[in-house]
Amino acid sequence: GEPSGPCVKTTIPGPKSLQMIADLDKIQFAGSIFYFTDIKNSLGNYIVDADGNSILDLLTQISSLPLGYNHPDLLKVLQDPDNHIAFINRPALAIFPTQGWPEKLTSSLLSVAPKGHTQVTTMACGACSNENAFKSTFMWYRNKQRGGAPITDEEHSSCLVNKGPGSTPFTIMSFKGSFHGQTLACLTTTHSRSVFKLDFPALDWPIASFPRYKYPLEDHIKENEAEDRRCLAEVEEQFEIYNKAGKFVAGVVVEPIQAEGGDVHASPEFFRELQRITKKNGAALILDEVQTGGGATGKYWCHEHFNLPDPVDIVTFSKKMLTGGFYSLPEFRPQQGLKIFNTWMGDPTKVLLLEKVLQVVKRDNLLKMVELSGKKLMDGLKDLSRRFPQHMQNVRGIGTFCAFDSGSQQKRDETFFRLQQHGIQPGPCGEQTIRLRPSLVFQPKHADIFLDILEKVLKEI
Amino acid sequence: GEPSGPCVKTTIPGPKSLQMIADLDKIQFAGSIFYFTDIKNSLGNYIVDADGNSILDLLTQISSLPLGYNHPDLLKVLQDPDNHIAFINRPALAIFPTQGWPEKLTSSLLSVAPKGHTQVTTMACGACSNENAFKSTFMWYRNKQRGGAPITDEEHSSCLVNKGPGSTPFTIMSFKGSFHGQTLACLTTTHSRSVFKLDFPALDWPIASFPRYKYPLEDHIKENEAEDRRCLAEVEEQFEIYNKAGKFVAGVVVEPIQAEGGDVHASPEFFRELQRITKKNGAALILDEVQTGGGATGKYWCHEHFNLPDPVDIVTFSKKMLTGGFYSLPEFRPQQGLKIFNTWMGDPTKVLLLEKVLQVVKRDNLLKMVELSGKKLMDGLKDLSRRFPQHMQNVRGIGTFCAFDSGSQQKRDETFFRLQQHGIQPGPCGEQTIRLRPSLVFQPKHADIFLDILEKVLKEI
Ligand code: FES
């Protein structure tokens, strides 16, 4: 079974990890590695590193493990010989899908589709999910612009050499602080940290401010409402500037919570108003739920907390969903093959595993568990923040998707380092934030263990 | 065992496939599907479709199956319980790699590295492999430009809003007719067919002509040499134009054979001269071996046929390698973490399977087999082309990576359709080309079966 708590025997990373990092560094740059892992001995919420340290994992492979390590039900999927053939015969899904594929999509991805969504396209990671959401948006916008007119020869020939009218001047609006992936178009919409963007070319696409609230929220209602209005005015302004310049804004991409940029939350009202403004401008609203989706907020999709009046146009996912992809409204279907296309179009084995994950989530009521554990976490974090205001501020979260600030980058790094040495693996994000990204099997008792150690660390600093 | 030949019972696609296509079409656009497959009953070179037709597969999931269907050695990888944990615990490889990972890279990808390459980075598909090859090139070029000067605050802050100097005006040169993937930057370097590009924005990056030879080559030596010179002059010209305009050409991306654009071959001399010109201009040469790599040309990397004087700067791969990724010279290593980065950075289970594929290729001498089967194929195709010159022209190929033209798109489509109805699955490419992309277990006897049926089809037309 799972250990009853973290167990640390060496500094982290320990000598074995350091040796392995040196080995890997001969083959590729290894400077971002925290430590090597002993996956075989990892279980549930605990990751074991190469030096035998057992660490309570609140980062879970950058928020991508839905059921923790070595979940017995997932193991069963691999033990079933009928499933083995799927793993050794990867199909080109958009040309030669395997029989049973529509049923698999229905029993997995469509069974948790956001409200109003009947269409889903699989991809292999968050970046190609967003890139293809952008492409779907551009096609849709251009078709509206064409108004049924046929595609001209000039469009066909000009796009081959990257020129108009076939290549369009369309843009996607994004928000300061956002993160949408690290291919070049995704990077154009990413603004969280310069390390991701420096030295790379970027497209001239509009950018608006994302709200930055004062906490605790209940004490700053007026100011935060004004902050929403300021940002939404920028959105309107960017629409006007870019549309007037002929760089038509076909879509707006936004995270329900800016996860990489420091767990920056915005109000349901902000998102409702954003949807209204986007619609008014004839553009599509793309919700990037790559990190927020998959259950950690207590619902499958974070934006379900926002009570939006209309379904979102496109919702992208990856990470905890195991497969990348996106839901989109029917009007975003391509009118032709090969436009939303690549060799594999995802990987059916990831959907096979996802199907089992969703069964477990339902059977074990894991979204309810997220709610309970999340409440425990939030209550504990708020309490610690009141007691150690010099080390912890701006506690925020939905479900177990929680974060707090440390006051400075140096203090965050110290908190992070000390937690690690005590056998807690948190995640850093933004300038001075600690984010928590446990998997869906994180229980209230794990929250207690974490909170105890965090208190100890805060006393040490 | 494998069937002794194709066996067709229905039209292709048959009624069951048509029903499944209709089912899938309720969930997503299904217009590019050829037929649904019965993977369980597929074996070796034969794919079985949902209607029970057994088809000799010369397309192999868009050239992505190295060992055909249900290879017994790959099945063993799945049957080994020690391997199961890798499939259910996907790591974030650039932060928490699993112990043994450097050794796995060494025994798999590095064991077949192109000459001079010691560095490899895994990715998850061809598109992110190319996107990250471009990014590596931009960083390298910018660092040369900086000449050791520190990165300024202005660079950091400007890139966050997609502006210079932090965002660079750098470009990648590509060739008419090329295909490098379908994310937006990859699409900017793709020029094979308008369907891939229409309606999407593109960057202003330089494009040069790729040689278009007259066949048979031995009868057109002078003309083809002149064609090389014409294209290389365009490369020089594009360097000059873009560099002078400050849109510095940091790299040139090229396929060893333009595979999607119609199997367009260029001479070893062309590639050697291209390498010289690229180097002279301080740019990087990126060889996109996503489709040509993995053994189908009789060598692991098609560019090994070119006798280049220096190692290529970056070689990208995916498809038959099962994992995406790229080899790069040490000077292309990032100087900082998170720049060549994403959540998963590939998938160790694909490398586990690749390791076995490479063992089988070596044990069974499959590259030698490719050579033999390729010779048989080429001889047969050339013979048929002489006998049916109105239906088949410009036979070309290296190893089993073969193609021929049909004279017109309509004739190609007819040849393609009739081959399919006779139980042969070829691939279309370019305007009027049939491409052959069998896996590495394709034997001379399979070439015979294909050539017999092709002859029958050519007589029917
Ligand atoms: S871009 Fe998503 S897997 Fe390659």
TrEMBL record, chains A, B:
Gene3D superfamilies: Aspartate Aminotransferase, domain 1, Type I PLP-dependent aspartate aminotransferase-like (Major domain). Its cofactor is pyridoxal 5'-phosphate. GO terms for molecular function: (S)-3-amino-2-methylpropionate transaminase activity; 4-aminobutyrate:2-oxoglutarate transaminase activity; pyridoxal phosphate binding. Keywords: Aminotransferase, Pyridoxal phosphate, Transferase. The keyword Secreted does not apply. Its EC number is 2.6.1.19, 2.6.1.22. Residues 91-196 form the Ig-like domain. GO terms for cellular component: mitochondrion. The keyword Phosphoprotein does not apply. GO terms for biological process: gamma-aminobutyric acid catabolic process. Belongs to the class-III pyridoxal-phosphate-dependent aminotransferase family. This is (S)-3-amino-2-methylpropionate transaminase. It comes from Daphnia sinensis.
